[in-house]
Amino acid sequence: MFTIKKLNLTRKEVETIDKKILELLTKRFQATDKIQTIKAELGLEITQKSMETDLLEKYAQKAREYGLPSDLIKKIFKMVFSYSKKTGIIKRI
Q1: Non-local CB neighbours of 30 within 8 Å, separated by 6+ positions
Q2: By C-alpha distance, which of 70, 33, 43, 42 is closest to 55?
Q3: 70-84 and 4-42 are packed helices; what angle lies between their axes, rounded to 10 degrees?
Q4: How many CA atoms lie within 13 A of 46 on its CB side?
């Protein structure tokens, strides 16, 4: 039987997970900022479409293994990739 206490504990668990997601996104954007700096110094293109496509397929497959909707995961990562390409995202926050 479920109780309000169990509900509140589960909500707290979700908040803890969400905080970890935010922390990981911050680390990811910091790393992609570094990648952009390196690419600029090397004169490389910011976007590597084939790499993005490969990663999306890899993540979609992993999502299916975890029982997650692969279309959702692709949408999430497309957004992450898009924001990652914006120079200095962490510096602007």
Answers
A1: 90
A2: 70
A3: 50
A4: 13
Instruction: Give the Cα separation of 49 and 46 in Å (integer).
Output: 10
Higher pLDDT, 17 or 1: 17
Question: What is the number of other CB atoms lying within 10 angstroms of the CB of residue 32?
Answer: 20
Q: Which of the 8 DSSP states describes residue 87?
A: T
Contact predicate 93/37, CB 8 Å: no
- pLDDT, one tens digit per residue, over 34-87 is 998 898 899 998 888 999 999 999 999 999 999 999 999 999 999 999 988 876
CA dist., res. 25 & res. 90, Å (int): 10
Output the six-digit token pair for 5. Answer: 């206490």
Task: Fill in the amino acid letter for 45.
Answer: E
Q: How far apart are CA 40 and CA 26, in angstroms?
A: 21
Residues in the chain: 93
